[in-house]
Amino acid sequence: MAMYSFSTNCDNNPQTTAGWVMTNTYKTIHEIRRENTRALARQVGSNASFARLIGREPTQISRFIGKNPTVNIGDDLARHIEEKMSVPHGWIDQDWNLEKNLGLTVLNESAAKYAVAEEVPHYTVEQLNAGAATKNTVKCPFKHGPGTFAVTVEGPAMSATYSARQTYPDGSIIFVDPTLEDKVEHMDIVAATLPDSKDAFTFRRLQIEAGQSYLVPINPQFPPMLDRPFNIIGKVIGGLLPH
Known about the structure:
- The chain has 2 domains: 23-95, lambda repressor-like DNA-binding domains (434 Repressor (Amino-terminal Domain), Orthogonal Bundle); 118-242, Umud Fragment, subunit A (Ribbon).
- Helix content is 21%, strand content 23%.
- It has helices at 29-43, 47-54, 58-65, 75-85, 98-101, 125-130; strands spanning 4-8, 118-123, 137-140, 149-152, 173-177, 189-194, 200-209, 212-216, 231-242.
- Strands 1, 2, 3, 4, 5, 6, 7, 8 and 9 form a 9-stranded mixed β-sheet that branches.
């Protein structure tokens, strides 16, 4: 079985690492719930913001996710937090190992239309280029919109040689959210098709300078696509790195 770790499209987040591992069989349910809840609180900015979102007093929050917690998160509270934070039923009970790695994109008041940890279609590049269907799926651990799909990365063009904070080496799985197609910004990682190559699939960092947009690989050994037309089909919201 392949093992993967987290990578996210969040280069400005100093807490994002490539060391996220999915499995851990040594934690109690109370430890798992506490770690996941702490991760959610950090993602919304502070315990005070988290308290406001879930309708609790900050002092109550400190009792179950503070530095020295005095109470555990019971079933009712776990389900309440999931409802208020718009994550699936049972999400807090699963060991995502988020406290150490914080690979989840920010959840906030507008997160209700998004899903986390749902199965999404998983394609090869060959399938995408052929317009073929896939029977494969993979669980997406990132907040994502409808139509999100995963792709197995081929080649080293998006593999960082200078940092592990944002890298997508050969064999990685990236997640593409098409609902963010019109919301991409300078330096985002985007998925695109190339009209001059029969709409072949690619993904690169979006560079916008002086009103001009072009695609740039993370690996400096590969040239930027300065003169090639492209059509953005979604934003890469994160990835899973092979071990």
